[in-house]
Amino acid sequence: MARLVIVSNRVPIPKARSAAAGGLAVALRDLMIPGSMWFGWSGRLSGEPAAQPALVEARGVNYATIDLTAEAHRAFYVGFANGALWPLLHFRLGLMHFRREDYAGYLAVNATFASALSQVLQADDMVWAHDYHLLPFGRILRRHGFAGPMGFFLHVPFVPPSVLEAIPVARELVTDLCAYDVVGFQTEEHARDFRDCAHRLLGATIDGEWVRLNGRRMRAFANPIGIDAEAFGQEARRSAGDKLVARVANSMAGRVLAIGVDRMDYSKGLPNRFEAYGILLERHPEHRRRIHFLQICPRSREEVDEYRKLRAELDRLTGRVNGRFSDFDWTPLRYSTRPAPRSTLAGLYRIGRIGVVTPLRDGMNLVAKEFVAAQPEEDPGVLVLSRFAGAAQELTEALIVNPFDGDAIADAMHLALTMSLDERRARHAALNAKVHRTNAEQFCRRFIDALMSPLPTLQAA
Ligand code: GDG
Predict the structure, then answer these.
(1) Of the candidates 9, 29, 83, 134, which lies 20 to 30 Å from 39 by C-alpha distance?
(2) What is the pLDDT of residues 391-435, one digit of tens each?
(3) Is-catalytic flag, 362?
(4) Which backbone phi and psi does 292 adopt, to 5 degrees?
(5) CATH superfamily of 4-226+441-452
């Protein structure tokens, strides 16, 4: 079988990976089959980066990394990827800052990646690139002569043509994705939006999942990402004895725990969530003093202005909810920006009666799946889930809410707090079965199968 080469912006080399809080790192960390390679940025900035990747072997996997200069990283990561593409792909056009020089820097880093990888790539390798940092990577790698199978998975949403067209380089971005053989999306809707863009912006012919452009075909399909639900459930059971989990459980004094876990990102709907919690306490005085909301949100991308503003906004809203409702011995909302170890997180989900996952847009949202996998089957908690998270397409037995509607989130939390044990069990059993079925292994297997299957014979147009 061909060697698998994963390419992503950051490379979670095993000794450093436990600190990583991010969906991609979590989803892929168990995928690395001995013999495969993972290539990307080392996480280091240097004045004169070497053109050759540095190679490290860990647990049979080869990690190949390159350093970047501070200017290159700024334009590529802070400027274009997170200043323009991230807001665009999360439907936040008002937050999109497009600058031609950032786009030029983004292309330049993708070219650096392609040139460095081509030095260690073998002809019979199979390349799988990940996420919005690397849209043009495959097209550029082809220019270096690589002819093997080349796939791409987009972890974030894709947008319809009317939204994509707001970015001046919309056609270039769609052309770039069409250069891969296979492109995977989190949901059918994202895959369809991409095919619509290829048709409307480039005049491509669409036939089911197949996109035909300039005499070439590529496949754009939905392949929802999953977690290793079995292992995560075990971790949650084991970590009941974790010191921090036990401390939190003891501090509850018979109250129930509502829990949210998100990188501090404006796509995650945190201000709306805090306000909705205030509405719950206002409208349902019977829940006051009987619930604690714990929001864990490690700081993220602080180089980008919008993320700093979000932090100030959350500090203000936390103060408002606690100022309005807290008592001498009860703080309704606790919010921590420190990342928790993964096992502690699993244990905290397990003691949560409500998992609150209300992003304004999200490719998938792994937290929703982790919360379900961590629950005790005999007395499970309830998931409140945004309809705009990819996970809502599958996890239909959750309480699905519109995250822009604070009253609806408050109603769902009230329903969760008053739901009968039978109903909680029935909903959880259905959700848990899905989370175990669409797991990380199936996600990887489906993608690699798609990448390895020969292209179907082209029907005469
Ligand atoms: C992108 C897409 C898509 C969070 N806080 C801590 C911590 N985490 C872990 C969670 C979860 C992961 O980070 C976050 O994954 P999400 O899926 O929720 O969100 P993104 O980071 O935005 O990920 C997303 C994902 O890629 C995968 O394709 O689902 O839509 O945006 O695993 O548990 N982990 C630890 N401490 C924390 O404090 N250890």
Answers:
(1) 83
(2) 999 999 999 999 999 999 999 999 999 999 999 999 999 999 999
(3) yes
(4) -120, 135
(5) Glycogen Phosphorylase B; (3.40.50.2000)
